[in-house]
Amino acid sequence: MRRSVASLIIVVLLIPALSFAIERVGTTMFQVLKMNVGVRGIGMGNAFVAGSQDAASIYWNPAGLGLMTRPELLLTHINMPAEVNYDIIGAAYPFAGIGTFGVSLAALHMDDMIVRTAEMPQGTGELFTASDLLLQVSYARQLSTLFSFGVSAKYIQEKLYSYTASGIAFDAGLHYQTGFRGMKMAMVIANFGPDQAFDGEYADWRTVSGQASGEPEVLEMDKHLLPMTFRVGVFGDLETLTGLSMGEGIRGNLGLQFEHPSDVAERVNLGTEFWFQNMIAIRGGYNFNYDTETFTAGLGFMQDVAGYGIKFDYAYAGLGDLTDTSSLMNSPHRFSLGIQF
User: Fold this and answer.
1) Exposed/middle/buried for 125, CB within 10 Å: 0-12, 13-18, 19+?
2) Alpha carbon of 226 to those of 28, 135, 151, 308: distances in Å?
3) CA-to-CA distance for 220 and 71, rounded, in angstroms?
4) 237: left (phi over 0), alpha (psi -120 to 50) or beta
5) Phi, psi of 170 (to 5 degrees)
6) What are the extents of the domains in the chain?
7) How many CB atoms are closer than 10 A to CB 224?
């Protein structure tokens, strides 16, 4: 019975992935949904859809929540270009015999900007801002010692000047212990849901010549697709995979991931990490076929303190020409603090 359920879930996940085989650059809404959040995975080149099994699974693959054994609180901060900041708080709690529930609240924000027009290029005296708010609820359950599945529901609100867009999206994923050299395999279909649009109207100045009044036609905002993405990947312990000894007190992991977005070309992610005394980690990875992101690097620290599991992760993800070099703190740094109870 459980095998039949697993097979059905795999088919359901694969069907949407077959529906977007054409690039549609610049045609999707809610770009915040495309931003990776889990800092450990970012340090490994984003090759983490099969590696996450803590609170960060809310973002990578909800099925990973089903493997959790301890409740966890996760705080994350991400620096973006142009002094844009992304702050996230998430938590997950496993209930024996029921499954694991997760919740996350994220805010992408920036400072106010000056309103400029063709007539007043130095500014009108007005200010405006842009922001995104993302609320996510997840559930996962381990169906057997080998297989787990998970789902997420998201509410997104995006504001730009006086316009607002809001909508819902869903994720569904699975995680499978293959039994081959300890390798884990996972897949997720992320950000599927109905088309969305900003509220309000806009003046289409392209229609002026066709209007007897000489005024532009006023139209409602167009609807756009969500940035749906299909990911499949593998993850495993280096010693078990290769049969080579890493040395006493040293262990490593390797991740490989294939990503098929609905609006850009396919991508490949590759990453590795090495743990020393199960306390300090160094990480590295590479993003293939990305417009700006290429190499990544990261550090990690993990230690039990007074019965609490403390995890600190840092990652640097190069953004090419978009990297802000004006100061050290404006560079694309990612930080997270996890507390296990």
Assistant:
1) exposed
2) 5, 16, 17, 39
3) 46
4) beta
5) -135, 150
6) 2-188+226-340
7) 18
The contacts of residue 292 (CB under 8 Å, 6+ apart) are 318, 319, 320, 321, 322
- One-letter identity of residue 124: T
CA angle 130, 135, 140 (to 5 degrees): 150
Assess contact for 114 and 88: CB atoms under 8 A.
no
Q: What Cα–Cα distance (Å) separates residue 44 from each residue in 168, 276, 296?
A: 29, 16, 7
Instruction: Give DSSP secondary structure letters for 81-112.
Output: GGGEEEEEEEEEEEETTTEEEEEEEEEEE---
Q: Among 122, 127, 199, which Cα is nearest to 161's?
A: 127
Q: Do 300 and 312 contact (CB within 8 A), yes or no?
A: yes
Separation CA 321–CA 308 (nearest Å): 41
**CA–CA dist 77, 100 (Å, integer):** 24
Alpha-carbon span 195 to 14, nearest angstrom:
20
Stated pTM of the model: 0.87
Half-sphere exposure of 123 (CA within 13 A, CB side): 7
Separation of alpha carbons 302 and 292, rounded Å: 31
Q: What is the pLDDT along the chain (341 residues), one digit of tens a residue?
A: 545 544 544 444 444 444 444 556 667 889 999 999 999 999 999 999 999 999 999 999 999 999 999 999 999 999 888 788 999 999 999 999 999 999 999 999 998 889 988 788 888 889 988 999 999 999 999 999 899 999 999 999 999 988 899 999 999 999 999 888 889 999 999 999 999 988 888 777 776 665 656 677 788 888 889 999 999 999 999 988 888 888 888 999 999 999 999 888 899 999 999 999 999 999 999 999 988 888 999 999 999 999 999 999 999 988 777 776 666 666 788 999 999 99
d(CA 40, CA 47): 10
